[in-house]
Design brief:
Length: 199
């Protein structure tokens, strides 16, 4: 049974420096300019747990795995020195009430309440079949290059096309069919061919 003098000695030892276990692991309070820090170390002296009461910052370390859990001001971080894999036999869900962000260097994908944002120097998408359904699509492009074997488009109303220059080239036939057609130009109109049939 421990008497009061021994309890006082243990308390003083913990507050002043550290309290060590038989295997060498220890708990200590380290003073610093930003306040005191509570530390827990294993028998090899590697830091396992760190807590700063002044800032509320807490860190849990797993030295053998290079893994850290950090928490401060309601923010929790999982930090890993090497690769990190999350694997499940069922469903993996990442849910954030305000949003979720996946980032790597200059590339990032953010899912928020207002929508989805993708930012990257280069984006590559490969799919056997892709289906896109949108109420409205707005595009701002510097240059468009499209390669396709077969294209079929159906537009109910092509309201307006405005271009500085239009050039259409066909290797075989070119058919323009409409109930009514009109060609209007402010300058000359040239029609050139081996033979021109009207009517």
């Amino acid at each position: 049974m421990t008497d009061r003098s021994e309890e006082a000695t243990m308390t003083q030892s913990l507050t002043g420096n550290e309290l060590a276990a038989a295997d060498g692991s220890a708990v200590s309070i380290r003073p610093g300019s930003g306040g005191e820090t509570l530390e827990t170390r294993d028998r090899d002296g590697q830091l396992l747990f760190e807590y700063q009461p002044a800032t509320g910052r807490a860190t849990v370390r797993l030295p053998g795995l290079g893994l850290e859990f950090r928490s401060v001001d309601g923010r929790t971080e999982l930090v890993c020195d090497r690769n990190l894999t999350i694997r499940s036999e069922g469903t993996v869900e990442i849910v954030g009430e305000r949003g979720s962000t996946l980032a790597c260097g200059p590339s990032s994908v953010r899912v928020g309440q207002e929508g989805l944002e993708l930012e990257a120097p280069v984006a590559r998408v490969r799919a056997g079949e892709a289906k896109i359904a949108c109420g409205k699509v707005e595009q701002s492009l510097g240059r468009v290059i499209t390669w396709a074997k077969q294209v079929y488009e159906r537009v109910e109303d092509l309201l307006h096309v405005r271009a500085g220059r239009i050039r259409t080239e066909a290797e075989n036939g070119h058919l323009v069919q409409a109930s009514q057609a009109r060609v209007q130009a402010e300058g000359d109109v040239h029609v050139q061919g081996r033979s021109i049939n009207l009517g």
